[in-house]
Each structure stands twice: as structure tokens, then as C-alpha cells.
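Subject: mismatched residue count in predicted assembly?

I count 494 residues in my input, but I want to confirm that the predicted structure covers every chain. Input:
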Amino acid sequence: MIERFNANMLGMSLMAIAFLIFTGVSFALLITYKILKKYSDIGDSSCDIKEYSRTGIRYNRTVDNAPAIEKSFLFADYGVDPYAEKKHNVPEVLLKNAENDINKFVK
Amino acid sequence: MAVLCSNCAGKLIFNPASQKLECANCGAGFRPEDVSDINADIHSKYYDTRVYTCSHCGAEVVTSDTESSTFCVYCGNPAIVFSRVSKEYRPDGIIPFKITKQQALDKIKSKFVNNPIVPKEIAGSFKPENMRGIYVPYWVINADYQEADWISGTVKRGKSSETRYYSRSGEVKFKNVPIDGSRILNDDVSLRLEPFYLEDSKEFDEDYLNGFYSNTSDMDFMDLRESASKRCHKLYAEEVVKSIPRNVNSVRIRDSIYWADIQDDPIYMMFPVWFLTFKYNGKPYTILVNGQTGKVTGTLPWLKKRVWGIAIATFILVIAFIIGMFFVINSGAAAIVTFMWTCGVSALLCTSVVSFTVGFRGLRRILKNLRLAQSEAIFNYVKRRQS
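Triage response: the counts match. Full output below for your records.
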């Protein structure tokens, strides 16, 4: 009985210690991150689609609480590049850079 | 190449404060569009530049001939040598520098004042001689874009939570998205410099380059398409998660497929950036300032002992607080003790999990940014591309 009591106590103590360490480390990580972000890491990037698109996203498919099989259908429908066949008028600079790359590779 | 003063034949340098070309000898000022270089052919597809090569990182730095390069702006190494006179493709447009060297330096210094974790000795590095203004090549694109996403999130159901999946697909027409056209400058670094406002852009005139360096685009169409796809995906991904119902927590994009199609008229532009390079503990650092808006980006070195001290002190304080709470709560009646312990431990555990996730991810991002600021990353990037 005493042995069981001791084993329970040991288990509880270990759990308490693990909990204390985890909580301490978590808060230490958070505070360190906040301080480094404020004083060392300057100039965050923020993205907003509205800066570069007037219309925003036009959704073709919005399925909430989707069954797992839906993923296969989704990626089967969108897995092929819709623009693959399109020909482009590529600016001369970009063509020249591609030529330079090929020349470097050949050398 | 260099335009000379019509009064005294001195060299003209572009002054961002007055937006004029100013003569260092007689002080006369001229608007760039009023000055003509007899050697320049404005109808030509090319313009002349001087190219310097860094023997340390292999980067090429292009200048007009009014300023000779003394050290590499990418890695800070002084082993930079004149390589050749080169004809470069004339960009379609340019955003001239609006922020002067001193203003850029003051903005960096303001981040340093009252900063408890940055070593004081680096203040000596914040000197005008360590600053270089570079016109960085950008492509401004319009693109049709399609993306399909498989998104997960958790919904509370009573005491437990349930993972749900959301299927989304859509398309966007992007307009005037700036894409960094240089392989040397990391895309993550250039992204942090944004926004640039195209309203200030002018038709390209090499007179704006006087007194500054410039870099030319070294990417091909496939590179541009890849960079554009990643950039558009970043913009799209931030928006698509907003379409998930508000009661869903821990929303995460699990899988995506995306395709971008660049329209036929990408515009080749030069955008202004101030680079401050310095060394601390043998490691190079680069801080950048947007030459149009004055936005400062980069990661300053920090005092490791002080940061470790803060982390350890927080750790000890949190443990002391919990132990203290243990004794305070245990002094109450047994029923209250049990109730408070259940609530307290649950709340602390939840907060700890959130703190751990936010702190761990945030620190990982800061360390990544630090590696980008230390220009060895750019060095490796160049080497990787070269190989």
C-alpha cells in the first residue's frame, strides 16, 4: 500500500515538474520572441491582396466540412496548368538572361 | 555615361532631397529631364554602366562613373575590383530616391536608440560611408492566377474539439505586383521592403543613377513566373483563410495547387534601396531602407547573454509564480482548493500550449530573418545559383 502510494506520489511529482518546466519554457519562448521582434527584427512584411487586385478572389468552389474524398476531386480538377499552352511575348532582357544561363551551363 | 554641369563641367549627382541633379563644384541644380547627355541615346535599348565584381561573394555591382565602388554592398567585403564597362538593357521606368543618405541613416539609428538588447559598439558602424544607394531591378506584372486549397480547422463540440476540412478554389486578376528581378537579393528580403508606390515612377533616365549603384535583372522568364507564382500565392493564402467560418480555430492550409500566368507586358523598373552593411563579431549584417518610403528592414545583432538572461529570468518568474499560487490556493478550504487547481492547471496548460506555439514559430521566423540579414545567406544564395 505504501509502495503504491509512493509510486503515485512519484508519478504526480514528475508530472508536476514536467508541467512546471513546460509552462516556464513556453512563457520564456513567448517573451523572448516578443522582445526580439520589438528590438531586433525590424520591418515586418504585410501582404494584402487588395493592394494588387481590385476584384479580390472569385471563388469557384467553397465546400465547408468537406469529406476526405473531396480533396481528390479538388486536386484532380485543378492539377493541370490551365495556362500551359499559352504563348507569351517575353521581354528581350529575360530572353537574353536565359541565353546567358544556357551559355554558362554549356561552358 | 556621366552628365556634366553646363556651367563648370563638374560631375552631376542626383540629390533625393531636391529631386535635382546637383553639381558638386558650383552647386548648380538641374532637373533630370532638362539635362541631356551628348553620349546617351535615349532611343537606344541600352545604356552604359561600369561593373565591379566582388572577389569574395561573386556579386556584380553596377555604377554610373560618378562614384567608384570601395566595397561590396552585398557582403561588405572591400575586395571589389572594376570589371568592365557594360551595356545594360534600358528599364522602362524608375522610382527615384526620395530619402537621402542621412535620412536613411537617421531612420536606422532611431531603431537603435533605447534598444536594450542591441550591442552598443555597432553604433560606430552606422556611418554614411557604410551606406550605399542601389537601384534594384523589379518586374511589375499583371497576372491571371488560379489556386485550389485544402484547409483544416478545429470546431468546438461540447468539451472536445473536432477537425474539419474545407475545400476552396478561386481565381484572381493581379495588377501591378512588384517582383524582385535580381537573383542576388533574396525574395524574402525584397518582400519586406514593400510597398513601393508606382505613382512616383518616372520614365527611365540614366541621370537618376548618378551617385548611386544599380543592379540589373539576371532572371529569365521561368524564374519570373516562379517568383510571381510564389508572390501571388502568399497574397492569395492570406485572403483565402478569411473565407473559413469564424467559429473555426487553428485554420491551416494543408495543401495547395496554384498557377500564375503573367500577362505579356511585364514592366522593367528600378526601385531605390539604401543598403547599410557592417560586421559584428566577424559576421556581416545588412540593413535595408526603402529609398522611396523610408521603411527600415533587417535584423540587428543582439547581445546573446542579455537575451538568454531575459529568457531564464522569465522561466524562473513563471515557476515562482506557480509555486506561489500553489501555497496561496492550498491555504483555502478543500473544495475551493480542488476547484481552483482544476481551473488553474487547465488555464495554464492551454496558455502554455499557445505561448509555446507562438513563441517557437516566431523565434524560428526571427532566426530565419537574422540569417537573411547576415549577408553570408546572400553569398550562399549566389553560390547556389552559380553552381
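Chain B touches chain A through 94 residues (CB under 8 Å). Marking this ticket as 'not a bug'.
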